[in-house]
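Methods — Computational structure assignment.
A single polypeptide chain was analysed. Its primary sequence is given first, followed by the predicted tertiary structure written as structure tokens.
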Amino acid sequence: MVGPFGKTCNQVGGTLNENFYKLILEEIRSEYINQERLMKLSQEDQALAEKNSELTIIQSELQKRNEAKRRAELLYLEGTENAELYRHYKAKYDQEIATLESQIRVLEKDVNAQPPAEAECRQKYEEFFARWEFATNSEEKNSLFSSIISRIWYNRETRTSEITIKIEYI
């Protein structure tokens, strides 16, 4: 796989040493909750709030349509309305209800698929570093990395052994 540096690593199977861990930690400290990322998360939070608001409105409309359909059925059963009028309103409400239910499913899917919010991001950051202090071996450190990192790309210069990394966060 080619990473953001435009090439694949030709040093496959290298182990992570303390310097590499330190480099990753420095990157996490400076980039995980930087202003740009926080602004993006804040915008996502706002979009999520708007979707939740829209979802509430549509759910309210769905409830109104279901009540109207029940009232139409009661009027028909009581003999106040004729069968033709009842079938007309029932078909109308059934169509509106199906449309609203479809919109609700789409919005719920969007709301449930949202990435971590700003507060959750900060909490993950704090938990990560609190747990990092107690990590004693590479397995524990790697497990902690995988709790906030999706992918790490790195480029090791052959002549200077300088490492440049790019992290993709969860």
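Note: The radius of gyration is 27 Å.
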